[in-house]
Amino acid sequence: MHSRLKPVDVFVGVNVLLLAAGSALFMAQRLSGAEARSNLAEILVYVLTIAAAILAGWRRMRRAALPLTTLGAMQLGILSAFAGGVVHIHGVRLYDTTLLGLPFDKWVHGLNAVAGMAFTQALLQPARGVVPRGLAIFLIVQGCGAIVEAIEYVCQALIPNTGVGGYDNNMQDILANLGGGLIYLVVHAGAAVLSRIVSRRVPAG
To answer: pTM for this one?
Structure first.
């Protein structure tokens, strides 16, 4: 008997197709010379890494019954990352533009850190021990972000003309991840406090 289709199944399927389409688009741009800074080998490394992570975690995500809001935040983060390399405004990539004084890339990192926090919280069982649950989630997501930066560094070191940036870019990305994670913790803690206040004031029916 087949298990019923879940929202996370749709999420995984959509993103596998998105990654395949993105790879084809980047390859077409590379072959046509439309995007001089796109490096096919670098893009393929990212695509394969993301696809492997999604497929490897598929079963766990099904068991966790991820909320639609979490899946939506993750999808928005993935789409923003692809848009940065694909969408052009007046001939300039989104990744080469700024928004409210910050490079678009840093907004993408902050957004994905928020989505990563929500995703990790949904996957983890309630933490019991010396490490608070929020801190455990925060450190896991920051560690995953650091792994992404390590992959970027390897691409930069081994593949010519990646356009990733140097040490400053790596550290700025990590700071953007840090900012996104801290924003999530503050908002989540504030919501929890507000919920307690409201529950105390509402009389039991």
So the answer is: 0.60
